[in-house]
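User: Structure please.
Assistant: Input sequence and predicted structure:
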Amino acid sequence: MAPDEGASRPARRVPRAGAAGRAGKRVGGAELISQLNDMVAELIKENRKLKREVDRLTARGSAAASSAVERSLRTIQRRVQRALKTPPKRKPGAGAKGRRKPATRKRRKP
């Protein structure tokens, strides 16, 4: 299908959210209040469910974070203990002869 083929077709109309249920007659006062009460009750249930899920995920996330922190602290402690236990080892030949002389710029003659 070429890009300009779809341009000649009429655009399809998309109904607004909730418009399908309102296609018939209008709802009266008592029935409208009943529907609104049902909708509010449903929203409250969903809100409670989502709050419980957020609490559960937060607890799980903080537990994972605390275990990562503990692991990092153990690693740091192990490194400090090793550093205090033995003197640092030097590689053979790492003295002055292994270093390079820093490069110097040559002066231009005026």
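The chain is about 50% helix and 0% strand.
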